[in-house]
Structure formats: C-alpha cells, structure tokens
Amino acid sequence: MKSAVRFVRRSGFAAALAFAAASLTLITSSVSAAEVAGVRIDDIAHVGNQELKLNGAGIRHKAIFKVYVAALYLNDRKATAAEVLNAPGAKRVTLVMLRNVGNEELARGFMSGIQQNSDKSEKARFISQLQKFGEIFASIPELKKGDVLTTDWVPGSGTVIHVNGRKVSDALPDPAFYNALLKIWLGDKPVDAGLKPAMLGEKPEEPQRGNS
Q1: How far is Cα 148 from Cα 165, in angstroms, rounded to an integer?
Q2: Same domain for 185 and 162?
Q3: Are residues 193 and 119 in the same domain?
Q4: Less crowded by CB within 10 Å, the N or C end of the chain?
Q5: Is the same domain home to 26 and 74?
Q6: CA 109, 184, 76, 42: dihedral to nearest 10 degrees?
Q7: pTM of the predicted model, to two decimals?
Q8: Total number of domains constituting the chain
C-alpha cells in the first residue's frame, strides 16, 4: 500500500514537473517570437563576433503604403535614441521589404532622412562616405517584396551593408556616418514618427506618417 502511495506521489510530482516545463516552453516561445506585418523577426542577430538582441521593430509607412519592416539589434536594450547612438559595440538595422521599391526611391528616402537629421558640420565630415553610400544604391536596381537589407556597424571595420545575405559594400569606417543612418529612423525628424518608438521597444498608439 505504501509503495502504491509513493508511486502515485512520484507520478503526480513528475506530471507537475512536466506541466511546468511545458508551460515555461510556451511562455518562452511567446516572448521570443516576434512578428510584424506577417514578417517573422529574429530575436537574435550575429554581427562580427557579437550576438545582438532585438531592441524593437515596426512598419515604415509612406502615405497609405507599408514599405518595409525595420528591426533594430543591439548588445543591450535601449529605450532612447541617445542611448542607441552612444551605445558601444556592434549594431544592426534590418529592413524586410513589404513591396517592390526602386533604388532611386529608396535612396531618396535614406538621403532625405540623413539631410533632415544631420547638420552641415556632420555632413561635411562624412561626405565621401555619403557619396559611396549613393553608389551602393545605384548598384541595386530594385528591392523586391521579401528582400532583406541589413545595415551593420562592425567595430574595428565600419558600416557594412548586405542584401539577402550578400555583401554589397566595402566597410565605411566613420562611426558618425553609421549614427547618421540610425538617425533616419531615430532622429528628431524620423522618416516615420510611428516607427521610431517601435524600434525603441515601445508600441505607438497610432502609426504616424513621415514626410519623405
């Protein structure tokens, strides 16, 4: 009889452990999974030899159109643009296209974002890198729906851009230039005012439209 009681107790304890483990797995999955506009966003990215965490992600709107999903990856979570710009280590912005966009349209959006969020002295400092950045877009005829563009800051190397995993640029070494890119989305005049808080880990009440 005692053996039977021990068996029941052990079986009940084992069942409780199994249930707790299953519950923990479900909770972990729900926390780590991120999906925006039907696009699954990885919660981890590897840049150089560093493992980065998803800081936030959202949709870039232009007029009535959804242009791309943007995701920001950092070593540690940051809640303000200043913290992101001053953070050491590798960084990544991933863009997943939600519609086809020609290189001229995309380049105009990037350049406009840089112009609106960088002063004359800053632009004078990285003018040569800005020109090379324009040449990169000229080499990409079009980004199609589902294409992935990553803009990485690699410590000791510089800004490196990939399209669908293929490197399309040499490293652009000035960290001020990478910060100028970050300001496209996180500056005082971001291309989409609703995307900025999303990339900073917030959930905006209503998406607001940018002016580019």
Answers
A1: 8
A2: yes
A3: yes
A4: N
A5: no
A6: -10
A7: 0.79
A8: 2
- Please state which of the ranges 51-60, 90-99, 137-146 shows the lowest mean pLDDT: 137-146
pLDDT at 16 over 60: no
Q: Is position 211 within any domain? A: no
Torsion of CA 158, 45, 88, 134, to 10 degrees: 30
Answer whether 56's CB lies under 8 Å from 41's CB.
no
- The number of C-alpha atoms within 13 Å of 128 and in the hemisphere containing its C-beta is 5
What value, to the nearest 5°, has the Cα angle with vertex 73 and ends 67 and 76?
A: 150
Expressed in percent and rounded to 5, the helix, strand and coil fractions of the chain are 40, 30, 30
CA 75 to chain centre: 12
Q: Which amino acid is at 124?
A: A
Pairing mode, strands 166-167 and 142-143: unpaired
Q: Find out whether 72 and 199 touch, Cβ atoms under 8 Å.
A: yes
Look at residue 209 and tell me if it is in a domain.
no
- Give the whole-angstrom CA distance, residue 41 versus residue 47: 16
Decide if 210 is inside a domain.
Answer: no
Give the tokens for residue 135.
Answer: 């040449």
Range of the domain at 11: 1-32
Give the pLDDT confidence of 169-210 residue by residue, as tens digits.
899 999 999 999 999 999 999 999 999 999 999 865 444 444
Residues in CB range of 96: below 8 A, 6 or more apart = 39, 41, 68, 69, 71, 146, 147, 148
Measured in whole angstroms, the distance separating CA 44 from the mean position of its chain's CA atoms is 10
